[in-house]
Write a structure and sequence with these properties.
binds 2-acetamido-2-deoxy-beta-D-glucopyranose, Porin, 63% strand, mainly beta
Length: 130
């Protein structure tokens, strides 16, 4: 998939199913302003009860995450990243609880991020998908 904006920016995305469980994805945004072009490569693996992802971006971005189903309704995850140029890194933890009618998530990271979310289904139509 590719798109060129009127100002000359080019967005492109390539998604490739390597196997039934392994996906590769590349996203790129190219501009003619120096330093604003971005590229990101993702590798996703979906196991029976876990999901993991590796990310490599231009400008020395490396990241990864891992989410494991603990029970039918509860998943726990962890993520980390490393920014080579800024010599910054971070780790985070995520919990997600879902039932037929609601999804609750909590997230905390060494960057200072703390986030809680709760989504309750109110009708059979229009339940948000993540
Ligand atoms: C787990 O989720 C299922 C549906 O996804 C729901 O029927 C069940 O009540 C949930 N269990 C608990 C303990 O919330």
């Amino acid at each position: 998939i590719g798109r060129i904006a009127p100002d000359g920016r080019l967005n492109g995305r390539v998604k490739y199913e390597v196997t039934e469980n392994l996906f590769a994805q590349m996203n790129a945004q190219l501009t003619n302003e120096p330093g604003y072009s971005q590229g990101m490569f993702n590798l996703d693996y979906k196991g029976k009860d876990f999901r993991t992802q590796c990310q490599v971006g231009n400008n020395g971005f490396y990241g990864g995450n891992y989410i494991q189903s603990v029970t039918k309704n509860l998943s726990l995850g962890t993520e980390g990243f490393w920014l080579q140029q800024q010599r910054k890194s971070g780790v985070g933890f995520l919990a997600r609880y879902d039932t037929k009618n609601m999804v609750a998530t909590g997230q905390i990271a060494s960057t200072g991020l703390v986030s809680l979310s709760y989504v309750q289904k109110v009708s059979n139509k229009g339940f948000p998908c993540y």
